[in-house]
Protein 1
Amino acid sequence: MSKGFASNYRIVVLAAGIFLCFGGVGVRLLFLHVIDRDQLVRYIDKARRQVIEEKARRGDILDARGNVLATSHTLVVVGVDPQMLRKEDETKWPALASLLNLPLAELKKTFSTKTRPTQADDDSSDAEVDIRWAKLSEDITEKTYESITALGVKGVYGERTYRRAYPHNQLAAHVIGFVNKEGAPASGIEHFADFYLRGQDGWRESEKDGRQRELAQFRTREVPATDGYSVVLSIDSAIQHIVECELDELAKKYSPEKMTIIVSDPHTGFILAMGNYPTFNLNEYSKADLAAQRNIAVADMYEPGSTFKIVAASGALNDGLVTPESPRFDCSVDRIDYKGKTRGLPREDHHFAAPLNTAEIIGHSSNRGAAQLAMLLGDERFYNYARAFGFGQLTGFPVGGEIDGQMAPPARWDGLTITRMPMGQSVAATPIQMHMAMSVVASGGLLMRPQIIREVRDAKGERVYRFDGVSRSRAISEHTAETMAYLLMRVASSEGTAPEAAIPGFQVAGKTGTAQKLVPVMDSKGRTVLRYSEKDHVASFVGFFPASRPQIAITVIVDGADARCPGGVAYGAKVAAPSFKRIGEQLIQYLDIKPVTELRQPLLVMGGAKL
Amino acid sequence: MIKTDHHAFVNQLLVYALVMISFTGSIGLGTVWMRNQIALTANSIKTLETRTAEVERHIAETTTMIASEQSPDELIRRNAEWRLGLVAPDFRTQIVRINENPEQRLAAKRNREIFAVDPAAARPVKFVMGGER
């Protein structure tokens, strides 16, 4: 009889041993997984679990042709833990200093400073703590950081951070705006379109090992980051550059207080360029003073002067009170009866012996003629037309802290307002308001909303939303607009006030403005009052071309250029109109604007018809 | 017989225990192997993610550099530095605008070619500098 391969006793002992071992493991598992579970899980959660934030990439800002105006890239903030430095690495310090663009002495000082005093309230305390992180540089590129890492200096390491970069520096600075070092959008499109640009940060939950490295296999929940959308502006960097070069030239020539130039498509209201002087570099925004960061085009107001005459003329033409040729107004008189009272008319820059019709009032920029046109309309109608042209209200331009200007309703007018407002006094407008008012004539009578964002694209470059031109209201009829465009062509002719704006071969329509500035002076009683200055002017030219098929509207406003002008007066025709012409000539080439020529014969010849 | 049955039972129990241990061990080893594979795959994914992020960082940096190089100021500086002599065409002398309608001219020319008895009578296209005619 076989006893098998083991004795009873040994088998029982072996089996008992195995079961005991299993039992021991089982009991331990019971303790680990049931009895001490909560405590252990809490410990593990504290020691190993981590939530890693995944930063979304902020979208780019592009110009109308896809050039990058603002983008995000990583920079490395490089620092040192002085406690970890090794003696044998000292030979690498000069190379490191060179890579960091730091003087070697400064680097050595940072490396040798290993402690700092505690920031206790008690001044008597002389305790010191170890420095574990001292910043060396915060603008290190990836490539440089690779070189730094390759040096292998122990204790020197970096932290990556997203930074906003503006490759074109000061180009369209007031429109683009900037994101500050804390990552907060501070102004411009960066602020306005932040909802589209910022994206959505993601996160993931996982565990880390003793060296703080993520244990990827223990990732549990994960929400991926959604990168921000890109915003495409209507700004064209080439046109913007033309405008900013012109501002530079004007600044060199006249040293004005401030200037603004706006270029737009009058039919859609899209702004193609908006430049201001003074300006600033977006990559060095912290060095720019606040005045330079101001978007003068929308946040400053001025008395528009003669450019405002388009309101009275358009209103009178639109209501059928006048035609370009008749009636004629006597502009030599200095007083006129209006609503039963005699009103003093403003001074003229020129003497007009013969009465002027509406075309001549515009062409010669007669102050008294404009006043009489407004009187024909009456207070209410004139005010309503001014409102219809967009004065005294926000245009809806989204960036730059737009203001609505100043235009009192007729109930608050004094006896002289109806004679002064038509020539652009007693009213304050922003440059963008004046620009859009002139665009009313160019667009065939429609008051458009000035827009700057063309479209929004997702991270893959697919279009998410496209903005189209928005008409706010109709100010005047299409016929009146055409008539006004024709009348404004006279301004830029040898008969008008601004032949300097004429571009040979092209129909230029526009209006000059030379507005006296209100300056504080002491009156006879010692009080400070505002008076129109004879020495301080705002020179402007607002116009468009080709007049019969407008493609471009340009506004040039130069404030405080008198000191360097002949005769000490900065006339719109002498300062701003030539600028209009120079910009216009460059745009003709760049945008391939063709002169408007009448077809002498129809295309019927194509079909073999008799001519 | 009883003793033999008892041994058989113990042997059978031992065999079952060993089989169970082997089975459990295999499952354990399998689990460990599987977890190791998961860890390897996860680490591989993590490495790829890190690499992707690195490439994206380089792309962003390169994009920024390219955009900077394409800025008008930089192009003008390069033009001067490299003495390329690139200038915008002169508005008045180098751009010739042809105001005549080209379709009409070409159609008329074609008609003349078709109907003319003497082919030499077909006038060639002639553009005048400055648009004067």
Protein 2
Amino acid sequence: MPSLQARLGTGLLLSLLAVFLVLWLTVSSAIRDVAQDYIATRLGHDSETLLSTLSFDSDGTPLINIARMDMIYQRPFSGHYYQIISAAKQLRSRSLWDDSLGVPLQANGASTRLKLQGPQQQPLLAVVSGYRKQNQSITIAVAEDLSAVEADIRAFQYRFGITAMVMLLLMGGMIVIMVRRGLSPLKQVREEVRELERGQRQQLNNAVPKEIAPLVSEVNHLLQILNTRLLRSRHALGDLAHALKKPLTVLRQMEREATFVAKPELQQELAGQINAMQQTIDHVLRRARLAGEGHAGTVFDIAQDLPLLIDALQKMYRHKALRIDTDISTGLRLSADREDMLELFGNLLDNACKWARQSIRLSIWADSQFRMTIEDDGPGIDAERIAELSQRGKRLDESVEGHGLGLAIVQDIVDQYHGSIGYVRSEALGGLQVAVTLPL
Amino acid sequence: MRVLLVEDDVELVCKLKPELEAAGYAVDVAANGIDAEFMGNEQLYDVAILDLGLPRLSGLEVLQHWRSRQNRLPVIVLTARDAWHERVDGFKAGADDYVGKPFHVEELLARISALLHRAHQQSAGLLTSNGLSLDEERQTVTTENGKDIALTGTEFRLLRYFLLHPGRILSKSTLTEHIYDFDSDKDSNVIEVYVRRLREKLGSDRIETRRGQGYVLREHG
């Protein structure tokens, strides 16, 4: 599809061109007609003057009183000519020299206007009239050279053409500007859609021209539906979690009842099953809760949300008196869902807090990608167990609650955002170092 | 120590309340957010256990309302909603600790105890003052000469309150308020009886009587 801009632009330019062309033709022909009418009128007058000075000698030869005629008719090839044709003879103006005007005879009272080729290739306008004087039928032709008038008309046409061209160019420029301006709301909408994609915006701005307003409001409506759906499913999942966890809590209390305490193997079985149920519920629900890339939810604000998270962790691990150092590049923006990122950072930092002796270091920076590392000074893990670490629900140490589960969720989040995660031994602190990379 | 348990799940309350009482806490229950907010502002409680999914007013709002009124009541949030963003929002609203459901009662008890110690500037572990150290799990007290003394429920509650407020004058009504819940038969003369029993077990000079004011646990021998 050709661009709207090109379509509008060419259309407008072509119609402008047509307007100028028609104008040029009409004005030119009108001017020519006016000039010729004017000349013809004068020629008619000259023709009548000729008639009034005309007399015949005895053998019917027409005679003209030259003194009463304009001198221009005497000068050879002056451009003004006459020719009187009677039955007996022809009388030509001196200016015609040896040439003659080939004109048809006219009946008495008839008159016609002709274009002729005159002497020296002059284009002539001739008025040929038929009269009757002293019982003689005569035809009088008076002609005038049109080349001067034609030259004036051509000069006018030229000037008109030049002016039109300049105007056309100016208007063409204006059309381009106007079309661009007219289409700029589309560009803005495109920009906003991009922001939507990055999650920097929840809705499209609906202060747009009425031509695209329906489109924008449709998109907004769609977004609202999507958001409502996501919210609804998140709420539904949250409620499900709530609903399932309460019976689990009660079941967990039942483990300690006398009946079960009396039968340790039964109690152990019950505990194991409850744990398995809880893990499955946790994992499935947390995965389902992930918004994933490109969702227009609340955006994770590193400068605001991370300190809150670290504060929360420090309260949760108050008994360990941990030091959490952060090294975060300022001005970083990551267009990711707040809940997802809090889940990612929360699980990784929580894991670090569980294992660390006293120090944790969080570094965040960006090159072409968003990068972060979380290091601790805990025991770390062996190289051969690193591969096991990210497997779903794999628990490296059953004694630390939720360890494997947390890292499996981290893996899910990283996958959702098309990022990568790696585990190595921390050089600075000696424990585990987790490095996460996400596309910006 | 008096605990405000805010939880709308009757079954869970039925399980949890006896456990808390067995651990020496006086427990009042609020089953919705409006009651919880009102009761928490009564200045009766030493700690609140707050569920977030409450009818009428959410737990998070209850907490925010308390904190906006400068109510510093220590709060442990107890919730099935334990996604990290919910935890962060909980702490931001002013929670002191967070326990996700389902949980082990022992864990909750340990968190309550730790929070109470912290709220009264006491170190974690055994509650100690003036040569006495109280084992809250076993509900026994050890004197400076290494003698273990078993305590009855009410004695334990009373001594724990004294140990968390060493050197402070505690009136009989204050002690009654923090040792008994709403449903108990409150007679402040009972406090005199229990103070006398504690003096018999621990030595008569540890708890002073301030006439007309109340009792003080002496900080130093």
Protein 3
Amino acid sequence: MGYRITAKTDLSPIDYFVEVEAPHVAKAWKPGQFVVFITNEKGERVPMSVYKAENGKIGMFIRKLGKSSMQLYYEFTVGDELYSMVGPLGKPIKVKHYGNVVFASDAVCGQAENYATLKAMKEAGNYTISIQSFEDAAKVYPEEFLAKPVADEYYLTTDDGSVGIKGNYLDVVKELIEKDKVDIIFAGGKLGTLAKLAELTRPYGIPTITTVRQIMVDGTGMCGSCRILYGGEVRFACRDGPMFDAHKVDWEDVLKRANRFLEQEKLARERYLEELRARGVV
Amino acid sequence: MPKLIKERVPTPERPPEERVKSFVEVNLGYTFELAKQEAERCLQCPVEYAPCIKGCPVHINIPAFIAKIKEGDIKEALRIIWNDNTLPAVTGRVCPQEDQCEGVCVVGKVGTAVNIGKLERFVADYAHEHGIEEELLEEMIAGKECGKGRVAVVGAGPAGLTCAGELAKMGYDVAIFEALHKSGGVLTYGIPEFRLPKSIVEKEIDKLRKLGVKILTDHVVGKTVTLEELLGEYDAVFIGTGAGTPRLLNIPGILLGRIYSANEFLTRINLMKAYEFPEYDTPIAVGKKVIVIGAGNTAMDAARSALRLGSEVTIAYRRGREDMTARIEEIGHAEEEGVKFEFFLNPVEFIGDEEGKVKAVKFEKMKALDERDKRGKRKIVGTGEYVTLPTDTVIIAIGLEPNRIITEEATGLRVNPNGTLVVDENLMTSIPGVFAGGDAIRGEATVILAMGDGKKAAKAICDYIEERRKASA
């Protein structure tokens, strides 16, 4: 069973957008859930956040970071088929009327979740506030891929201030809290920032729901690779998450566990880059 | 009365020093001549008495198929086996025969039991290699009815595959919904290549496709499609989702790096072929000194896999040698290959280094009491003495429980406290028209018991659909 690629385009020098036909997944997907794809027969199972699930297609934002994500970028084009696409996996978030809903993100998957979550939250009658953080002006996505259209209030930040507000989403969140504008905050992206966000909102008791990205194999609760400590108990990010109450997550362990396969990941990436160089692709 | 031959005809095996270097199958199986010789040892107990038939969970007519081997008629031997078991190439390799058919074999009372497992495997392999299986399959397809109803099967493991095969033979249109990208369930992700080559599993699945069974991989029932949606489209549903969730130890350090559940370790290796990394993309990080916790078949599989990745491996078990639950053949193979065993050690803490990787396991020393538990194992108690073993990789193989995805979504399904599905004597769950079998109802059992359930459920599903049809007519 093949899953045809229907669109692929650059978002920035490091990220790209890809859209894949998978009607069985698109039909059932709800915000908060993720998918798992495999590029080809020898590929790994790659868990991925969803930007859009419409018309039988799954849209994703992907960073050219590991072998699979680079392979999908360099070797697959519109019309080609992925080997596998399964989902939706994980638990959906509760979409209802909260009041002021914030989504903050500072990395590729988080940016996808930002749009997807706030779209649903806006439809549910919330006042939506989107904060999207990028490293610098060059890394900012094209206008049509930002979460602006689904945000009643929108903030863009860059680390160096080359465009938008200088700093990252934590600075904006702080201000919003001071103005008493946050009823609930969702966030996705870099684990380190999420851990800081949890500490920032904790004293105010603001509900903080964040994606906890962990290394997965199957994505269905079968292997326990993505286990985290949550309120002192073991939970699987794939089955019980991937979005959790950030105040109950043991972030120190999460940060350590995310680095378990660094050596192997580097080896696969270097080997693949060499192959690409030899073929003159990069 | 044939003359009793006490000793088994040995099956050829690859020597340990050769096999620890690769994942190729260890046991080479009988040749035609050797199989005939071994078949001669069967005393041909009459069907109504034969203990082996009673000892087999699916009651294969063992003396009859062995008699056909003696005659050299492998096609008839296969036909007899297929009456009760459509996956003999698998069960011949993975059944715990010593606890079933061979355990009660009359010959075993004076010598070693007839090697029923290897004879079963021989029939399956020989028939496949010589086109006999294909012939028999074509006969079966030619005689098959169709259009008797539509059934959805959840999970393409031993229970689901068997149920689907039986229903297809009876004339039903069957669709299997499988969560992973490959079919086979535990046969594919759990049992290693050196014990059950994946080509054999694929061959069995092909057989089902030829019988008209449709397999939809990448479909998680409970997520991609709900049970209710299936019931709207199909006349009945069979749930064979297995026991796919690992039990982990509730002790400090469980989140440290390089501590794997056996499921993660084996899935990376078997399903994702991590032993061929970086040719295949899925990695596995294994150190030089591996500790496997547990002593069942899964523990042996994990230990022998780690050995093949170049590690020194120790199995640590909280009970004694005689309490190990693995098949005797697996324990024997593990020992021959150099796996070390430590008994009466119960893990109490994982100790990590600065990077968050495991560097040692602290165990409490245990001792056995004379008293026995429900399963007939000696009870154990802690001694208050501790020992710390250095390691760089830990694999936890202490058991599995059912995956909750389907029961969390389909709240009408009644569930036991241990997560297994409640079923009646016909294997029907609390939702009419929804049946279940295998580890989803048993917790953690064997391939053959799951297949037995699949077969029994197929009959019950057939009756259920027929009755409903009569009632509505």
